[in-house]
Write a structure and sequence with these properties.
- The complex is a heterodimer of chains A (466) and B (313).
- Chain A is 48% helix and 13% strand.
- Chain A is an alpha+beta fold and 466 residues long.
- Chain A has a 4-stranded antiparallel β-sheet, with no helix packed on it. Chain A has a 3-stranded mixed β-sheet with strand order 9-1-10.
- In chain A, α9 (357-364) packs across α10.
- In chain B, α4 (86-121) packs across α12 (275-303), α6 (143-161) packs across α10 (239-256) and α10 packs antiparallel against α12.
- Chain B is an all-alpha fold and 313 residues long.
- Chain B is 77% helix and 0% strand.
- Chain B has helices at 2-28, 43-52, 59-71, 86-121, 126-140, 143-161, 174-203, 207-215, 219-237, 239-256, 262-271, 275-303, 305-311.
- Chain B starts with a helix and ends with a helix.
- Classes of the chains: A alpha+beta (466), B mainly alpha (313).
Chain lengths: 466, 313
């Protein structure tokens, strides 16, 4: 009872929020530095983060560095593999004047004809291959064939390109989808009804060539250039490091443009829906009682909607028909349908965390609800939210790819990896690279985000509630 | 238990009503006119078509008629194939999707049990690492990519080696089912493998396993009766989402493999803006999924009594 201590009245004043909470709510720096340390040691995390950063850099700066127009078609080089930049001969005129050499010989029947001799190349570019030969005595016309291998028999001559149309014509010009590869041209003499069994074959490898009009379209020469004025024999064709697609568009440029669209949709949708779910779940969990009950019941309804069907339905109801592009509606539809998962997760966390003693302590010290949410609940939920976000991005990429694949996502002229895959599948048998590139991009991106999410979850030591 | 089932049933019905309502209004707000195409050439034809599809009535009447018809299980008449009822379309195409889905789910569950068990058994050794690598790759590849690669492989085998293992696409025999069902079930299998591995490892620490070992039970018996059985329990909860994933995943797989299922039909209906088919199919799928989730929940309630106690508070 002999208490000598003096109590002054100001000791019993309520403490200001600043004074009392300063110490209690220190940011948990050691925790995050430990997480960072664990992430740095994890091969998966380092590897996947590197890929993610590279992808983001490629999407951001790629189209600035690789300045090929992704929508430009080069019909002469459709569905090609990797191509280096090369010189191409400029073909000024598309006209072809056949060589005529009328001989006054009487016509012979097919069996009496011989094979043409001295078959030679007049010009050989990817625009046009022109051949000439010596006239065969008594021949009415000549049939010309093209094959991709040396023909062994008369039946093996390959593609019938046509026949000479004028009497005495001894040259032929072929411009049918020529590539830079070996062709074997065969010429057979004919009496107009049947043709002779003997043939002459010549191997031809066309040089790169480009027509005047095509060069103008590709802006390799000025659009108003005059063929008689411009003294230019060849132009440089652009390189296609990853080849071209079935419409002759540069794959690399399209992949970079597609990366922008795919990643934009995925990152923005994931951020928005996790953000909305976070706010929704935090309010529901913190409010508790009837508010919580009805808010979560509503979330349950949204979850019950058949997801992809409603993605498509919402898209249509935004006024975007099949085959039309809608990046923003796609994001909105994704957000509308995807937030409940994040909301449930956050609500569960809030319900758990608000029972923690430090929350009670903060409340006793007079902290407001908003303060408690921002200062205590959010930092403690940050790990879970980050993991949810990391898994939300690949999920959104998948959905975008899926919708674009069935033609309900991104459509021309815009493109995305999913839309490119759709094109690729149509041409799978002819040109598999067209599917492989975008498919690899989707898979690698999703894999990187999944790996990083796993590593992050392990580093944060969150028990997997898969 | 009955109380629990009744409550779940009631909330299931409300959910289906919500889906039907959301579908109705989402489709109603589609800009433009469903009868704006060439069929409605003259005002008279247009008027008659409006009457046929009930579009001349006020919105509230349309909505209630729609709900009444849905409740009776009548989804109306197709817009593009005017003599075909949506019910007939569903009846014709859904069994195909269902068969494919059931087989896919079966493949997924069996595969998950096998791979999960192998993975857990060789924990932190190379078979485990390999399986986990395959799992994460499988969930990272869209199903159309896997399908396309497999089809390409089959064709290449046929072309260069003269081996034709399975048909590349189509529908009709049991060989036609295998590849699409496997592709459809793959991501579910991967997901469940991972879950089962985690559960098996967790259960491995349980006291009852030590007891079982101490009693001298054979390892096989311990594994099947005590270990696997308890680890499988939580897998039942993901059956609902798995069925949903397989159902909607069917769209792409049916397209890729040219299977005449409801999913492919839905995608075609969307591309042709066939309103009644889109609405009918959406509500049908929604109701189907709600029912499946309900069944799974009830099943789980029977298997694990803790669940229904937790719900009935």
């Amino acid at each position: 009872m002999n208490n000598s201590q003096q109590f002054s009245p100001e000791l019993f004043e309520p403490a200001s929020v600043r004074e009392s909470l300063e110490g209690a709510a220190q940011p948990a720096a050691p925790f995050w530095s430990a997480v960072l340390r664990r992430l740095r040691r994890d091969v998966r995390a380092v590897f996947s983060l590197l890929i993610i950063v590279l992808l983001l850099l490629a999407a951001l700066f790629g189209p600035l560095l690789w300045r090929v127009d992704p929508a430009q078609q080069i019909l002469g080089a459709a569905a090609q593999g990797s191509m280096a930049a090369q010189r191409a001969l400029l073909i000024r005129s598309s006209e072809f004047t056949p060589l005529i050499e009328i001989s006054d010989n009487a016509l012979l029947s097919a069996a009496q004809l011989s094979a043409p001799t001295q078959l030679q190349i007049l010009e050989a570019t990817t625009e046009r291959v022109t051949l000439r030969w010596q006239p065969v005595r008594g021949a009415y016309r000549y049939d010309i064939y093209r094959n991709t291998h040396q023909p062994a028999t008369r039946a093996d001559l390959g593609l019938p390109l046509g026949f000479t149309t004028q009497r005495g014509q001894i040259s032929f010009s072929d411009g049918l989808q020529l590539r830079q590869r070996n062709y074997f041209y065969s010429v057979v003499a004919s009496d107009g009804i049947a043709s002779n069994d003997r043939f002459t074959t010549l191997a031809v490898t066309p040089q790169a060539g480009i027509g005047w009009l095509e060069a103008q379209l590709q802006r390799l020469i000025p659009a108003d250039a005059d063929p008689t004025q411009l003294h230019l024999d060849s132009v440089m064709l652009p390189a296609h490091p990853l080849g071209t697609d079935h419409l002759g568009r540069d794959m690399l440029a399209r992949l970079l443009q597609g990366a922008r669209v795919s990643l934009l949709i995925a990152v923005s949708a994931a951020l928005l829906y996790v953000g909305f779910g976070l706010a929704y779940g935090a309010v529901a969990g913190f409010a508790g009682g009837a508010v919580d009950h009805w808010m979560m019941r509503f979330a349950d309804f949204i979850v019950a909607l058949p997801f992809l069907l409603f993605m498509i339905l919402l898209r249509i109801s935004f006024g975007i028909g099949p085959g039309e592009s809608g990046v923003l509606p796609l994001v909105i539809a994704l957000v509308i349908l995807s937030w409940p998962a994040a909301a449930r997760l956050v609500r569960g966390q809030v319900l758990q965390l608000r029972e923690e003693p430090y929350v009670d302590a903060a409340r006793l010290a007079g902290a407001s609800s908003a303060y408690i949410i921002v200062r205590h609940l959010l930092p403690n939920m940050l790990g879970v939210i980050l993991v949810a976000l990391t898994f939300a991005i690949p999920n959104a990429i998948f959905i975008e790819a899926f919708l674009s694949f069935i033609g309900m996502g991104v459509s021309p002229p815009a493109t995305s990896w999913g839309a490119m895959s759709n094109d690729g599948v149509q041409n799978l048998m002819v040109h598999p690279a067209e599917l492989l590139w975008p498919a690899a991009c989707i898979s690698i991106t999703v894999l990187a985000f999944n790996l990083f999410g796993d590593a992050l979850r392990d580093a944060l030591d969150i028990k997997g509630n898969e | 238990m009955w109380r629990y089932i009744f409550k779940r049933l009631l909330s299931g019905i409300i959910t289906i009503w919500f889906i039907a309502t959301a579908t109705f209004f989402a489709m109603h707000f589609v800009p433009g006119d469903p009868l704006s195409d060439a069929r409605a050439a003259t005002p008279e034809i247009r008027k008659n078509l409006q009457i046929k599809y009930g579009l001349d009535r006020p919105l509230s009447t349309q909505y209630f008629l729609y709900l009444r018809n849905m409740a009776r299980g009548d989804f109306g008449i197709s817009f593009t194939q005017q003599n075909r009822r949506v019910n007939d379309i569903i009846r014709a195409h859904f069994p195909v999707s269902a068969l494919l889905g059931v087989i896919a789910l079966f493949i997924a569950v069996v595969g998950a049990v096998v791979w999960g068990a192998v993975s857990a058994h060789f924990r932190q050794r190379w078979p485990d690492h390999l399986i986990m690598l395959v799992v994460i790759c499988a969930v990272s590849m869209p199903s159309f990519v896997i399908a396309a690669l497999l089809q390409w492989l089959l064709l290449a085998l046929d072309r260069y080696f003269g081996v034709s293992l399975l048909p590349v696409a189509g529908w009709g025999s049991w060989q036609h089912v295998l590849l699409p069902a496997w592709v459809l079930g793959l991501s579910t299998m991967a997901y469940m493998t991972r879950l089962l591995r985690a559960n098996l490892l967790e259960v491995a620490q349980a006291d009852y396993l030590r007891t079982a070992r101490a009693k001298g039970l054979t390892p096989t018996r311990i594994f099947f009766r005590h270990h696997l059985r308890n680890a499988l329990l939580p897998v039942i909860t993901v059956l609902g989402p798995a069925i949903a994933a397989i159902t909607t995943g069917g769209f792409v797989v049916e397209l890729m493999f040219a299977i005449p299922g409801l999913g492919r039909y839905f995608v075609e209906a969307v591309q042709q803006l066939d309103y009644t088919v889109i609405m009918g199919t959406t509500v049908f799928y929604g109701a189907f999924l709600v029912l499946m989730v309900l069944l799974v929940d009830i099943l789980y309630g029977f298997v694990d009594p803790r669940i229904r106690v937790g719900h009935s508070r």
